[in-house]
Predict the structure of acylaminoacyl-peptidase.
Amino acid sequence: SDSSTSFQKSHLIKSLFQLQNVPSVAKGEIVTSHDGKENQLLSLTFSQSQHTSESHKFNKLYSLHKDNDPKVSFLYGTASGSHNVTVWENQTHAQSHPYELKYSLSGEKQPKFLSQLALFDQKIGLNYSINLPENYLGWIHVEQFRSHWVVNVPDVQREGSNITELQQQQQYLIANFEVLQAGEQKSAYFWQNEPKKDKFDYESFDNWGEQMEHLRCERLFVWTLDRDTIQEDLQTPSDDGSEKGSKKESSFREIEGIPKDICVGQFVVSHDGNDIYFVGHPTQPRRLGMIYCEQRPSNLYKLSNWKGKGNEVSCEKICDNVWNALSPRISPDGDTLVFLTTGKVVYHKTNLQLIAMNLKDNSTRIVVDFVRRPKSSDDFPGLFFGANWFKDRVFTSDSKYLLCTVLWRSFDAVIRINLENGRVQRCTPSMGNGSLSLLDYTDNSLLVLESNPVHPYRVLYGEFDASFQVHNWIVVDDCRNVMSKSALNILDSLEWHHKVLISESDGLEYEYFVVKPKILDSDTQQFLTNPHGGPHSVYTVSFAYTYAFLASQGFTCIIPNYRGSIGFGQDVVEALPGHCGDVDVKDCYTATQDAISIFGDKTKKHVVSVRGGSHGGFLTLNLLGRHPEMFSCGVALNAVTNIAAMPTSTDIPDWCYAEVLNSDHLHAPTADFLEKAFYASPISVVDQIKSPTLLLVGRDDLRVPPSQSKEFYFALKSRGVTTQMIYYPENCHPIAKPKDAADVLLRTVGWLLKYTKE
């Protein structure tokens, strides 16, 4: 009836919002006193969903009491944007003014080492904050919306989204800005009037692809800072937008000497300030999609005498023996630069090497090598990174160790790397079997985030021993202390399990985990297989409200990390390229069978559905077509449906050849490719699909063009299959706008419940 349908929708929305409303930890810091022995401060920044708008952020500050019975006490919290905690010279100060203050210079009452400039220009949407201890720049944050450049987006190589970065140096700010190509409209800097619009250049279509199409070529700029003239340099616009007073144009200039066909990525500055080391991305013969693609070619360059002009500046490539260089970091003693490299591979995410360069002679050595096949689940599988790449600070103060978060099979793990011998040590979670992510550290302590599929987060502090183990964790914050009773009841009604599988064909291990209700209220047990995208990606056992929500609606969620997933060693990654649509489909099917046999209630009827996005959508549709006897319903988001049709329309045509042929071919499709790509794709088995299929599409997707879903939709419809396609405007490959992401989940559950009960 209409009333029962209305009640069901209301229940779904309420359950989803309860879980979305659980805060997540965005950042954590340990604030150490001068001698390191007194009480410490712990700062946490949280993010909380607003359902229909961008996330809300807030801060919490804690005091850590070091005595015979160490404990943490809460000091205070702040609302979004109203306060921020700044640390400088081992001193902590909470600034009380909001970010919205316009053109105000504050700092008269700050500690003697600290002053702050806060600027917000509503006309061009610019937030600007600078901490200036003496002649040093502490940090800067610039966001210019609806224009061509963005500053301070970390880790370009992680997923390609940040071809902009900042570094501090005495009296200088070195920033990576975008320079628009000739013929394009150039946005004014914030102190300038808007320039006249240039004639549109119809040839300027080459870009960095999905979510980065607005970026073109990035250069390095230097901003000379002088406390006596900084207010003069940042002139307050008059009411008509013109500048008042004079301005030193020379204070902001491009660093010369960088080849024009090189796009500047991450960079670091030597401790003496004489050299800049940067990652250079070639722009010729063409740009390819950068986001999620860490294997793109690049190199490490050294800029010497960068304060000079013209021929005075020296720019040299310093690593000819590597395919690419990612995340350069300089040790505290200034002697060593470390970076990551993938080696020359055709697939987009992979095992990485850690390389150390001696800055005295530019010699390099491998610190951590590729790992082919770990002997067991306890053995280090190699360096794989997910959402957590190298932070800005990775070294201990003595320059002997690096600390970071890596992927360890289906888990996030905190590790310590000995820079001298490459030994890797893993810190064990306190809950035993969950994910652990590094927030911050000192030379003998850790601030970590612990999580599993039914426990969103616990923030822990602990001091580690020589084996990198913490024996007495202190709970700083636990989500259960702030969650609503309804959300607690939902999570308390769920359980999760983890299982290792071994492929019969090659002996390689892969895994799946299950999130399910503890008690089944229905006579039917609903199974839902959820393969990840990529395909060289992984789902970890960290909390994801998506699976908690689906499980709360009665689904036993099966999350397979099939062969091709990262975090299991290089052999597992390499098992898929050339066998796409075969190995991955078989593993998902086997994991589903295994989960049903172990976690299925034999007294109930079993109904199995499948959902996934991108390559997960490719697997969803392949499973519906290749195993119609098992899967009775499906939902696919921005799914790859026909690889043969993709090379000329996607921003990553190389992906098509890599997964189908295990080749780096990047030219016109061959007949051999077209045939193999077709038979690997869901379009080849569309005649076998009988189950109701929902297609969800981001209209602005450049990675998997909407035409893929559109072609499949009409193919299903012409065959009489129950199907629907929903377009989401202003969404790209991830359908991520809050209200649309919520709609995706609600539609998914509604579709699955409707067509698995009929």
Notes: The first strand starts at residue 24 and ends at 31.
